[in-house]
Amino acid sequence: MVWDERVAALFRRNLQPTLTYWSVFFSFGLCIAFLGPTLLDLRCQTQSSLSQITWVFFSQQFCLLLGSCLGGVFKRTLAQSLVALFASSLAISVVFAIIPLCHNVVVLAVVMAMAGLAMGCIDTISNMQLVKIYQKDSAVFLQALHFFVGFGALLSPLIADPFLSDSSCIQSNSTLNATSNLPHIRKSLVPHHPGNLSYYELPMKGLVVTRVSYAFWIMALINLPVPIAVFFLLYKERLVPCFNNGSLPLLSADELAMETQPAEKDDRSGASQSAQPARGHDDLFSCCQSKNFRGAPYSYFAVHVAGALVLFMSDGIIGEYSGFVYSYAVEEPLSVVHKVAGYLPSLFWGFITLGRLISIPVSYRMKPATMVSINVVGVLVTFLLLLIFSHSVVFLFVGTACLGLFLSSTFPSMLAYTEDILQYKGCATTVLVTGAGIGEMVLQLLVGSIIHDQGSYSFLVCGTIFGGLAFMFYAFLLFFHRMYPKPSSEVDAFSHEKPAMTNDSGLYQS
């Protein structure tokens, strides 16, 4: 990938904050993927039932969604943003360290809820900060950001795997019956839906034998450099209390002047900027205030809603496919051997990570709208082919890999595209992150209930329907993009001069 000099200079000028946000998103990925593989060992540690321990899934997912909604509260100034990232990344290390000390399922659920809040803040803040720094050039940097979450999500199960119990980690008279089914139970566990596992009797009382604590302590140490990196960025910006020379605005003075009301353009003092933050990019509740809607065309709201619905479907597909592809494969008509079917979720996440890596150079040459078009069409076509070849085990593996590739770059491309439509003055980041989080949680629960009632074949039918809806909502987004008012020539001229202005602003410069 060969960058032009302007983008390369912008990246060099913002190298430290960009690398910091990428590392924080690695922390997000590390935390999001460890719970599934370790859940049975945590069940033993808390001596709880399968239905009780799956509430830990729900507490993490619900608070992740809540943290995504509230993340914008901490983005009014650079100081608030970085302090929130520091606290969130440090909280993840603390959570990893104290999970082995949680011997009650309620306490464990509370701890995972704290981790979910931290992850939600990281998700919203990191995406928004990169959009604010790079704006029209943000697509490639967002692709790299989401590669790091995929890398973290791949790494944490690999760290946990050597420390997982090969036999039941609660020694009792019923241990022998449970031991042979343990790998199947581990792969079949999905958030808050253990109904298809209720007939497996796992002991709840007895001698607890598990080494999973070492995995969590290793992950806590691996994650520790992340809050340190955020602290160094705070120190460089003189936002550490003993070096504080006044709270710096999140945007430069020129950027604030462009994004605030005309009456505020001449007010450049630090106190005034702290009291009156830039328009747009607020938390979800601030976005819903009526003052933000005055004079906005209907297409303004339609772009937000259509973009959120596309990600509702695409992230929902990621959640439901990774959660249920194993259960689908081991049931009739495929009846794949449990050990072979266990590779499907890993294959899916592996190709998501590979796709995000490939998308970094591709996104520099291809417009975000084109990438999203390829993604939604590819997902729909892949599901249709999976339905046609539903009796082929080979095509199930091929289709799983293709789905991972097509879904990999949907979120960052959609975020860059939607923010570009709204000229970086809407609430797109917060709305899209929230919509994606709701979709991942809701569609997984919905598909789990449908599969339980209608059988395994409904898994592909649901995926095809969701893929078709994602395509339809994206077509609506393209239509509303045409209806959305074009920026005036004055705004265009201003945006062309913005890189030079940013150079003199001192934003993220020593």
What does this structure look like?
There is one protein chain. The protein has helices at 5-13, 15-32, 35-46, 50-70, 78-98, 105-134, 138-160, 175-179, 182-188, 212-223, 225-236, 253-259, 270-275, 284-287, 298-330, 338-341, 343-365, 368-388, 393-408, 410-421, 428-454, 458-483, 489-505, and strands at residues 170-171, 207-208. With 510 residues, it is mainly α. Strands 1-2 form a two-stranded antiparallel sheet. It is globular, with a radius of gyration of 23 Å.
Question: What portion of residues belong to β-strands?
Answer: under 5%
- Gyration radius (Cα, Å) is 23 Å
Question: Spatial order of the strands in the main sheet?
Answer: 1-2
Q: What's the tally of helices? A: 23
Q: What is the ordering of alpha helices and beta strands?
A: HHHHHHHEHHEHHHHHHHHHHHHHH
The profile of the biggest β sheet is: 2 strands, antiparallel
Global structural class: mainly alpha
- Roughly how much helix do the residues carry, as a percent range? over 70%
Low-confidence stretches: 246-281, 489-510
